[in-house]
Amino acid sequence: MDNMLEMYLYETNTLMEQLDELLIEAEKNEAFTTNDVNEIFRIMHTIKGSSAMMEFSTLMEIAHHIEDLFFYIRENGMDSLDESHKSDLFNLMFQSTDALRVEVEKIENDEPLSSNIDQIIANINSFLEKISSSGNSSSDTSSGKESAAADAAPAADADAIAAINQELAGCPKSDLPYFIRIRFEVGSGMENLRAFMVITALNEIELNFEHYPEDVESAADTCESIVENGFFIALSSHEDVEKAIPILKIQNSIETYEVIENVATKASKKPEPAAKAVSASKPAAAVPAVDTSSAAEPAKPAAPGTPAHTGAPVKQSLISVNLSKLDSLVAIVGEIVITESMVTSSPDLQNLKLDNFLKSARQLRKLTGDLQDIAMSLRMVPLAGTFQKMNRIVRDMKKKLNKDVRLTLIGENTEVDKTVVDSIGDPIMHIVRNSMDHGVETNVEDRIAAGKKPQAEIVLSAAHTGSEVIISISDDGQGMDPDKILAKAERNGILTKPASDYSKKEILSLLLLPGFSTNEEVTEFSGRGVGMDVVKKNVEAVGGTISITSELGKGSCTTLKIPLTMAITDGMEVSVGKSMFTIPIANIRQSFKTQKEDVILDASGNEIIKCQDAFYPIIRIHDLYNIETEVTNIEDGILIWVETADKSYCLFVDELLGEQQVVVKPLSPFLSNFNIKDSGIGGCTILGDGNISLILDISNLYAATQGLY
After folding, report:
1. Residue 677 buriedness (CB in 10 A; 0-12 / 13-18 / 19+)
2. What was the pLDDT predicted at 567?
3. How many whole angstroms separate alpha carbon 114 and alpha carbon 270?
4. Gap between the Cα atoms of 556 and 424, Å rounded
5. I need a surface site. Which of 89, 121, 519, 664 has the fewest CB within 10 A?
6. 577-600: pLDDT as tens digits
7. Low-confidence spans in the chain with pLDDT less than 50
8. How far apart are CA 642 and CA 651, in angstroms?
9. pLDDT reported for residue 169
């Protein structure tokens, strides 16, 4: 059941995302197309069937009533709705999908489903009754009893069901020339709902057929009949049989099926070339591998050298994999990278001429690199899912704030590590909300007076730059007033130096401090004094950085720099005394030697140095971590100019050991009791010679020095 639940949640969430995208696009076009209506009907039909099979009655009921609504629209066309109905339909659909999503989240969190969904059902039925009465439709759809299954299955002879009960091994009575009798796995349970899933799958390829029993969706007592006699599909031609067979092959719960010619129609009609009764059992723990063969011509042996056709179904090109398995794979690949480095760097092999070994080592390194790239790529997913969700945020806030805003997406197919994608969804959503709430002007007249277009624009973009992804959220709104931000920070007592000493970049970075908010009024969306500091923490938790730029009267831009993956990174190895540290390459701007006279002291007595017309503080690693070293003279060591978000400074180390790709190992949980991360240590790695190197967290390291100097 756990595997079934995982698959159900995966498929349902995927369908819900497709539905959201479809609704947003349709609302932009101000109408549903015929394809949209059919797609929504199919999505709801699938959710209804799978929810019924999993016995999630709340989800089934909501989906069933939406399906009834779109059955009516499909039969009568969008022209049967007037303009007010179309607007109400969009609002109703968004409310309904929100209700579905709430129930799915409860399932994910192992919480009980809602016991009362009367309001949402009443809203759907009320709307259906309104449009059906205004269209003078004689359809009885509003009763909620229409369904795709009933539509796809023409009425059978009155004694069809009785015939199944009477003829245990026979077929129901029908005028159609072919039957497919399906047997489900013994002891699988819920055979009626499994039969309904088969009906749903066949409906999706728009196949005309009858099925017996015909009330499997609503009658639980049909299980016994299906177990004893099988579930029957009646088809009108051999071509339809051939269309149905591939669908049956990929149904997980089917153990066997057989194609049977209807002898009752043979006397009155000349049969088409038909498949005689053919049955095949599904091998244990495998997808059903069964096929039909013609009775008119015996099977011929395969020609020498020609692979025999087994009739096995073609495997799908896409599969879903549990993320924990990918985590384990990446961990193993990391260990292989470390072990390969330890073998090739073994001190026992120094100064030895081993040509064959070196050749094999080079090949091993190449294969290890390829394996690492593939393992990393398996975890990479596009940002499209996260970006598309912002459409819904903008849509809802447009309605509530009465602002005309369009969202432009750029680079949504950019791929990032799955863990990173999951972590940055909330930060991006919060920034988009901020842009909508108090970034975009409230009055259109203000925009026009400033020479802007009446419709505001928020641009959400993503692009690769080497080892990281740059995500930016920009708007053409009113921008931020640095003086107002500085005054608010001063009132709150969060300034650490005189207000006149703050640069514009530093003033904007104050927005990321805890408890800071420029919004004077608390709204539904922002202004509670929390938010951007949490956004910063979430971004930094995945090794990213955040920065803000703004031009008063022209707009603002928030930029996130996110690493492609957190598991393996490029680092520069440095030594301080007998200790080794790894500095992420992405944070290094330059490394250089300096002279004593180039270093000056600031007003507080701290060392600073001039780099490219600006002064930056110098942090001595041996002083910060109390490491004994003989390299204390500034001329004997190396300065490494590092940068992260709004911080830029120089690190003083003994020497550079070289660039190396390292596997990031998290620190043990008990070390968090000592706030070691706040000391500028982000993790550790094992080097090729077996030594451990601590990975420096450039962002937190600067904060750690504030208590030292």
Report:
1. middle
2. 66
3. 56
4. 19
5. 519
6. 999 999 988 889 899 998 888 888
7. 136-170, 267, 269-316, 520-522, 524, 527-530, 708-709
8. 7
9. 43
Phi, psi of 210 (to 5 degrees): -115, 160
Give the span between the Cα atoms of 39 and 26, in whole angstroms. Answer: 12
Cis peptide before 213 (omega within 30 of 0): yes
How confident is the model at residue 157, as a pLDDT?
40
With H, G, I as helix, E, B as strand and everything else as coil, classify residue 255.
strand
List, in sequence order, the alpha helices (H) in 542-675. 621-624
CB 288 within 8 A of CB 313: yes
- For the chain, the farthest-separated pair of C-alpha atoms sits apart, in whole angstroms, at 109
pLDDT at 532: 80
Supply the pLDDT for residue 556: 92
User: Helix or strand or coil: residue 665?
Assistant: strand
pLDDT of residue 267: 47
Q: Are 187 and 227 in contact (CB under 8 A)?
A: no
Place of tokens 């180390």: 653
SS3 24: helix
Q: In whole angstroms, give the CA distance from residue 86 to residue 63.
A: 19
Residues contacting 223, CB < 8 A, separation 6+: 190, 191, 192
Task: Give the pLDDT confidence score for residue 33 in this predicted structure.
Answer: 87
Q: List strand residue ranges (DSSP E) for 174-321, in order.
A: 178-184, 210-212, 231-235, 254-261
* CA distance readout (Å), 231 to 134, 169, 224: 41, 11, 11
Contact 47, 59 (CB under 8 A): yes
Interatomic CA distance for residues 134 and 124, integer angstroms: 16
